[in-house]
């Protein structure tokens, strides 16, 4: 297996093409939903679970057989059919500068989708590079428990706090110290308890130089 380079892509307003209308295509659509990508689904038919998603303004269904021109200007391409011949045709039509993922793991694969746990701006991705999808799913479930929904608010607070600290403190070492103190485990506990105000009080204590408690 090729050593893959992990990266988070900004797909906002970029064209993404999914060739296929079955379960794999549905999985790719669900993974893409948090983005603002312009998604094109190319397939004569789609399974029932995909139909409600087609109401979203950034998703278009081309109810037809695949043609090379369907890939024009696409940044990301998924060959997600159960037909090796169709997936071959998609690969052949893909330009060298376009990124391709084949669901059947045949021939050219420029990227694979990791399993993702998303809590607002907090994103954890895990992959076994295709070696064991079962292990990937198992670890994802464990991460979903470890990093619950409270992490969305926790990271949002840290983001706001970082901006405030950067504006209030000019000395780099002092700023670094304060940002490190914001990783005190009590902040996450306060957020889990619904006490976000205590987090802001803690931040103000740090900024004023008061002893925190």
List keywords for this structure.
alpha/beta, 3 domains, Rossmann fold, Double Stranded RNA Binding Domain, porphyrin biosynthesis, 213 residues, 7 strands, five-stranded parallel sheet, Sirohaem_synthase_central, 7 helices, two-stranded antiparallel ribbon, SirC_C
Overview of this structure, please?
Keywords: NAD, Oxidoreductase, Porphyrin biosynthesis. The protein has three domains: 99 residues, Rossmann fold, CATH 3.40.50.720; 34 residues, Double Stranded RNA Binding Domain (2-Layer Sandwich), CATH 3.30.160; 59 residues. The protein is built from seven helices and seven strands. The strands form two sheets. It has a five-stranded parallel beta sheet, sandwiched between helices. Strands 6-7 form a two-stranded antiparallel ribbon. Helix 4 packs across helix 6 and helix 4 runs parallel beside helix 7. The longest helix has 19 residues. The protein is elongated, with a radius of gyration of 22 Å.
The biggest sheet amounts to: 5 strands, parallel
Determine the mean pLDDT. 95
The CATH architecture of the largest domain: 3-Layer(aba) Sandwich
Give the DSSP E fraction (strand runs of 2 or more residues): 15-25%
User: Looking across the biggest beta sheet, what order are the strands in?
Assistant: 3-2-1-4-5
What structural class do the secondary elements suggest? alpha/beta
Radius of gyration: 22 Å
Number of helices: 7
List how many beta strands DSSP finds.
Answer: 7
CATH topology of the largest domain: Rossmann fold
Q: Let me know the CATH homologous superfamily of the largest domain.
A: NAD(P)-binding Rossmann-like Domain
Helical amount among residues, as a percent range? Answer: 25-40%
N to C succession of SSEs: EHEEEHEEEHHHHH
- Tertiary shape: elongated
The termini sit apart by 51 Å
- Under CATH at level 1, the class of the largest domain stands as Alpha Beta
Total domain count: 3
Low-confidence stretches: none
Keywords: NAD, Oxidoreductase, Porphyrin biosynthesis
Protein name: precorrin-2 dehydrogenase
Pfam families: NAD_binding_7 (PF13241), SirC_C (PF22440), Sirohm_synth_M (PF14824)
Domain Siroheme synthase central: 124-144
